[in-house]
Amino acid sequence: MVLEAQGESPAAQEALEKLCRTYWRPIYSFVRRHGARAEDAEDLTQGFFALLLERKDLNTVRKEKGRLRSYLLASVKHFLTDEARHAMAVKRGKGQWLIPFEEIRERERIDVERSDRLTADQIYERRWAFTVLEQVMTRLRDEYRSAGNVRFFDQMKKMLMDEAGRPSQAQMASEFDMTENAVKQAFYRFRQRYQALLREEISHTVAMPSDIEDELRYLIAVVRA
After folding, report:
1. Does residue 3 fall inside a structural domain?
2. Sequence-ordered alpha helix ranges (H) in 55-149
3. Which of 4, 157, 197, 218 could form a disulfide with 15 if both were Cys (CB 3.0 to 4.6 A apart)?
4. Residue 1 covered by a domain
5. What is the sign of the dihedral through the CA atoms of 90, 94, 95 and 101?
6. Tell me: the pLDDT tens digits for 159-189?
7. What share of the chain is helix, strand, coil (3-state, %, to 5)?
8. What is the span of the domain harbouring residue 143?
C-alpha cells in the first residue's frame, strides 16, 4: 500500500484513501496533544498529508525497509518543528475528502479523560492500533453481511472481544439452531479469519514481510498497555 498510494491512477487513489483512513486519526491526535487547537490541528494534519504526498516521501519507507507507523511518527514530529508549517493555512477544497474531521472531533470528546494521562507518542500509538483493529472488524463484518449473517457476526464478535453480555456456546446453539460443536467450529473459523485479516492490514504498513509478526506483536502490546 505504501508505494501504491502514489500516482494518479484509480488504484493509487484507492490506496491513498486507505492510507489516510488508517493514519489521519493518530496524526491528528498527536498534533492535538502537542497543544494545537482543534481547528489548527485540522489544518496541520491536512497539510502534513499533502506535503508527504507532494514530496513522494512514502518511497523512503520501502527504500529504507521501514515501518510506516514509525516513519510517519518521526515525519510529523519533524513537520511540527518547522515553524513555517505552523503558520501555514491549508486551503479547504482539493483533497479535503481525505480526512473526516467531524468524526475525529466526536471521538476526541469521548477520549479526553484518558488522553490527558498519555504522552503524544502514546496517543499516536494507541490511535493507530485501535484504528487498525476497527478496520479489520469492519472488513469481517462486511463479509458476514454479504452472506446475510450480520446477526451471527454480532454474537461472534461479542465472544471474540469478551464483550459484556457475551453469549455462551449453548446460548448461541439455541439462538441459531446449531449444535454446540457447530458453534465451536464456527467461532474457530471466525477467529482464524479475524487473525488473517489483521495480518493483511499490518502487511500494508511494513516494507518487508518479515516485519509483519514483529509489528503485530507491537500492536498487541500497545492495546494491552
Report:
1. no
2. 58-63, 68-81, 83-86, 101-115, 120-146
3. 4
4. no
5. positive
6. 998 777 789 999 999 999 999 999 999 999 9
7. 75, 0, 25
8. 10-224
